Amino acid sequence: MEFDELSELAHKVVREKGFLLVDFSMRKTGTKYMIRLLVDRPGRITIMECVRISKAFQDAMDQELVMEGENYRLEVSSPGVGRLLSREVDWVRTVGRKLSIRLETEEFVGYLEEYDSDILKFRNGRVIPVSEIVSAVEVLDMGSGGS
To answer: Taking the domain 88-138, which CATH number applies?
Structure first.
């Protein structure tokens, strides 16, 4: 079983279901493989959507016999808050969410309204090129959706 083959299959299944594959990992732990898919979408993914993706991915693995005779554990979940954001898939999936952004000279928290061509647009009208971001994470939204 090849990592690249399984990763490609994961991307295909997740994309066909209309979601984004944020991360894929596979490692051998003893006699079992641990396969982990982090999936999301703009808005927010639900537990039931993760269950449907898990079932679809297992079916695809069985159909293509990529895990025949192998013991594995499959985990499909969302990335959650606090994960560093740095790739295009991160900006696409966090539109509408509250982000904490650190720039070279300042830090701020705001709701990402739009992502377009490496430009982040926030509800307060602020526009920031991705290239200027030192670090960014999604933060828990405890309010009603301010700036």
So the answer is: 2.30.30.100
Distance of CA 139 to the CA centre of its chain: 15
Q: Token pair for residue 144?
A: 């009603």
Superfamily of domain 3-77: Cation efflux protein, cytoplasmic domain (3.30.70.1350)
- Where residue 70 falls among pLDDT bands split at 50, 70, 90? confident
The pLDDT assigned to 57 comes to 96
Question: pLDDT tens digits, residue range 76-109?
Answer: 999 988 899 999 999 999 999 999 999 999 999 9
Give 16-65 as a DSSP string. Answer: HTT-EEEEEEEEEETTEEEEEEEEE-SS---HHHHHHHHHHHHHHHHHHT
Contacts for 11-14: CB closer than 8 Å, 24+ residues apart: 12/60, 13/53, 13/56, 13/57, 13/60, 14/39, 14/53, 14/57
The residue type found at 7 is S
Predicted model pTM: 0.83
Which are the contacts of 66, defined by CB distance < 8 A and separation ≥ 6? 1, 5, 6, 9
